[in-house]
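User: Can you help me understand a structure? I only have the sequence.
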Amino acid sequence: RSCSFTGFSTVQSRKLAKSLSRSSVRSRMSLKPPKAYNSLQKGALIWDPKPLQVKKIFEALKKGLNEYLEAHQAELDYLSGRHKDTKRNSRLAFYYDLDKQIRSVERYIRKLEFHISKVEELYEAYCIQCRLRDGATNMKHAFSLSPSTKASRESLVELYKNFQECTEDMCFIEGALEVHLGEFHVKMKGLVGFARLCPGDQYEVFVRLGRQKWRLKGKIETDDSQTWDEEEKIFIPNLHEKFEIKVTELRGLATILVGVVTCDSINFFTTKPQAIIVDITELGTIKLQLEVLW
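Assistant: Let's start by predicting it. Here is the structure, written out as tokens:
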């Protein structure tokens, strides 16, 4: 929304600047420390929230959680129908077993509903801080174009302080939201290379997501099967990092880089296992196949 500050009074400017002041969301939430990045000035720290990326992850996360909720609600409806039939047939042992299953699914559904409401609450708070931050930015720009006075300088100082507080709060909320992203169970399915893969070839696959790393080695056997020293790894998703996959071929003491690719995790927030087949070489002559279960 565009605003004109022509004829904007000092009293109004101070009121508007003060209206951006609010109690910090950190005082109301138990949050993870924000991710700090070194600025160009030595000794200073800045925070770098990513509203567009957070929006994408939030929408994917909410969609995935609703998929789980619908699946468990369908299971509950099915079990409830069997429960009624069993009660009429008076098979007590089976009836009580079904009753326990129903109670278990009901508890899980309540947990999912709470999880969804918590994620929505965090994202709503994030959007509020984002709007306040944008408002402070627009006001700073408007004041910088107006004649400098003592009142305008005081307002600029207040606006800068509010901008910094909003930025820090957004980063703290990002940290809190990451706690609710769940886990990615990544399974190694092997390399696909057609004529490029020969018996005796050895490869190393390195998968990284932020600071989390997974390094595994594999060998092509004489019957064209593959053996890997690890088959599964759990990664904790985060808001800003993508999967980075590097494949190297091991030849004695030498290593030859086959290729490096990145893979966005936004499509993995779903109830069904996702098969990932990525081209490691530019021509796609060697591919890597993984499976991700959220």
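Now, to help you interpret it: Helices lie at 10-19, 51-89, 92-145, 150-178. The two ends are 39 Å apart (CA to CA). Let me know which part you'd like to focus on.
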